[in-house]
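In the previous chapter we treated chains in isolation. Here, by contrast, the input contains two separate entities that must be folded as one system, with a combined length of 669 residues.
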Amino acid sequence: MKFIASAAAVLFFCAAAVTAQTLDDLKNDGKNTDNVLTHGMGYHLQRYSPLNQINKKTVRRLVPVWNLSLDNNWGEQAQPIVYNGVMVVTNARATVAIDLATGKQIWKHTLDWPPETPRVVCCGVSNKGAAIYNGRVYRTTLDAHVLALDAKDGKEIWKSKVAEWKDGYSLTVAPLIANGVLITGISGAEFGIRGFIDGWDPETGKQLWRHYTIPARGEKGNETWPQDNNAWEIGGGSAWITGSYDPELDLMYWGIGNPAPWASQRRPGDNLYTSSVLALRPKTGEVAWYYQFTPNDAYDYDACWELILADLKLQGRGRKVLMQLNRNGFLYVLDRTNGQLISANAYEKVNWASQVDLKTGRPVETDIAKSIRDMKATEHWPSTRGAKNWQHSAFNPQTGLLYANTLHEGRMYKHLETKPYTVGQRYQFIENLPLPRVPGEPVGHIEAIDPLTAAKKWRVPLMDFQIWSAMLATGGGLLFTGKETGEFIALDADTGKQLWQFQTGSGINAMPVTFTQKGRQYVTVLSGIGGLYWNIAREQLKDKVPPGGSVWTFALMQD
Amino acid sequence: MRRRFAAPLAAALALAGAPATAQSPQARNFAPEQLKTGAEIYERNCSPCHGARMLDPQGAADLRKFPRDERERFINSVTRGKNQMPPWGGLLKPEEVEALWAYVVAGGKI
């Protein structure tokens, strides 16, 4: 009997070893196309898969193979994780494991945050996805906790409090596992938080380090904040989109959010390290270098968006770069070994700055910027929502192009007089009113962009609704993305021509993935309208697009 | 440049003028201090969803259209939450919710 128990234990541990994801697995994500182990489909966040079974010719035979309801009306924004025949998805309410072969739910772990929590959530009650490592699933919660679940059964292993939600802190970011450390950011710059990035022990949930995105008095960078008030203590600088990671350099790159309040009169100075990128060591949180995109940001141009890593040829020399379609309208390429600016070109209509000075790395502000800083109502491009928002772009290393869903939107923007900070309440002090729609002018584009010049290879105008869904690029010459009106679409990556579509049950504002099982290629996307654009366009969409989350998985129709 | 600027400005001015017509005679019954408190709370906590000065409600309820004879419904919705709006009763005092009601009834005019 004793022997049997021991043998069972050995077998159990063998099975556990087989199902555990190692750091090497995470580093090599994408090489084994049966799995999708990292947010961004690789530490580089390229959202590219070489899979080509579904291609320009075969995509017309793409059909749904299963659909699973997530029983959630708050909206779906997450990217699924796929490992060993199991898919894990998250939203603000739950984490769900699904059997890929059948589409049936294996387990569900639900969350119960206080109903008041959305008071401190600026832009939609959501969650961007899970991380997986060593047999565990990690996720963040709206009421600012991080937790570990057993990948086998969804049982909670540990739960750590990150911050007090009543003070304006919340979490929607998908965690990153880098060099054995679990990394999370924070949301809340619209509520006057002091932002940070945390490193956790994945085994125990113990906090290993915290790096504040705004330096304290006496630390380098604090001199860019006023020295006669406490603006730095309530200065924002969130980090709500997952950073990228270069295992060779052992550096991770996190985009840092806007300063608080948006109205800038009480915080003269560059306000480091808001609206910047930080290159950090995952083991310690130590900063190797930084670059600030928008000094003294007066426009909510937070720099949280995906920082895509690639190797580009520049004047015959290979360079390790980092790319970002920044909210401020410029497309930046930086040397990721040292933060040196390589190029910065406008990819949308920009009127607050004329250019980025490549010598100083600083934007050259125009009279429009002066007018805004002088607290006058001003026609402002791109609006505070940016030339691109959080909808993740894709990079195809074969074509060398970025593929993105961008926004074409200006607004009447005005700074108001700031009032004293009140803990856990909004800290913005602006008016932001719509401009009349110019007939024939698009509201956004789907586009293919050269990272170094920002030249468009092609551009598809969007005349009705913007797209707030991530892009997926594949070796089959296709792009996949989803519309707020529910259509999941496939485009020809060479021309932008739409080749295929399927109407899902709600709007799509999530992140599609592709993978294989037993040699067959699948594509999955979450459908469920929510997030900031649902807040913005609900009046136009409410009679056309019902809420309701679900997972859709597609494959080519078999004979 | 001047022409481009002029059209949006005119539209913004037109919008800004809109609530004046919605002003109820009861607005005169509210103390100026109460209206000022309501305006400050509105600007900080409500305008991100219901729009600056109630002009651009986007996805949230258009408070310019909220029935002026349904005070109790307003107080309950703000205090306890409704649809995607969270409850505010734990943050705002009853007199602050009343001040918000005054601001709404006054059509955003203080």
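Confidence is low (pLDDT under 50) at residues 1-18 of chain A. The first strand of chain A starts at residue 48 and ends at 49. Compare these points with the single-chain example from earlier in the chapter.
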